[in-house]
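Q: Give me the 3D complex with iron/sulfur cluster.
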Amino acid sequence: MNPFDDLLAGRPLTRAGFLTLLQGRKQESVRLRQEAGARARAVFGSKVYLRALLEISSYCKRNCYYCGLRCDNAQARRYRLTKDEILSRAKFAYDLGFRTVVLQGGEDPALTDAFLTDLLSELRPLVPDAAITLSLGERSPSSYEALYAAGARRYLLRHETRDPEHYQRLHPKAQRIESRLECLRTLKTIGYQTGAGMMVGSPGQTLAHLALDLAFLQELRPEMVGIGPFIAHPQTPLADYANGSLDLTLDLIAITRLLLPYALIPSTTAVATLDEAARFSALQAGANVLMPNASYEEHKADYNIYPGKKAQALEGTDSLEALEAALTRIGVHSSMERGDYHDHV
Ligand code: SAH
Ligand code: SF4
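A: Here is the predicted complex, encoded as structure tokens.
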């Protein structure tokens, strides 16, 4: 049996099987993406879920080698939204119809449990039937529990790369893959819909590493999977490396769709940053989520994780209508529903 047939039939693959699949992907790429697109349509119909993304702080105490927000980047411009700014922007997204609000930020020491639980206690009734997703990095189990108790139900924390040596090539010694995995397990145990995922084409990454990432996703079964290409940031130690491959990213999205048919998989901003049209190619290759950027205009440029970010704009209803028209051209349409994870739709 070849691994592509196993994948299509929903049979588990070994790490070696994933590697064979990745090595032979170029010949299978068209079929792979078609099958993945068809699988997404079979599970979700023609719906693409929209999530409003709000970038709440550009401060970060971490030092990931790839990211422009790393604490050693003295040139980064830092901002932090107040509680009232977050509430008001979340309400703006809610009033536009969004039923998922994603609060993302660097690991800002000011985002204490006290601040966040107070924020959530006011946000929860303000957007009563919306899901609140957090993406605020690694925190303690008790912190994740407190945030869940305060009403957060989803958490995005990419594993970035599952291989410990490769992980250490992208992060300083104080940041360990073990701690990231522990966070992911904790989030799942608490009951969060949990998002893992990886950067594609980061320095030193091989197909064998990606095969391990796929085997990891198969085992963890995250409810959400974010996959985007590495984009070199000039103010980081990885400034001189090449960007990740868009083609390989799209194939990995397709493989992930076939591996986890019910997962919520975004067409990531990093994909659109390399090629704006690819935002839609990803949706045709199995992705089923878009995250328009609901942040304040004056702060968008300062949430500079990587250069040239091409987020899906969200100025108001005009942007949503333009997006709908673009989606219609590829035969899908947007849905503002919560779009929770279900094993069977
Ligand atoms: N601080 C949180 C959330 C913000 S970073 C966290 O790290 O989880 C969100 C994601 O941006 C990271 O998971 C990483 O995969 C991605 N990212 C950071 N720098 C990047 C780069 N240079 N190219 C592509 N993706 C990057
Ligand atoms: Fe901070 Fe996240 Fe960037 Fe790492 S990837 S430096 S944790 S914002």
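A quick observation: The domain at 32-330 is CATH 3.20.20.70 (TIM Barrel).
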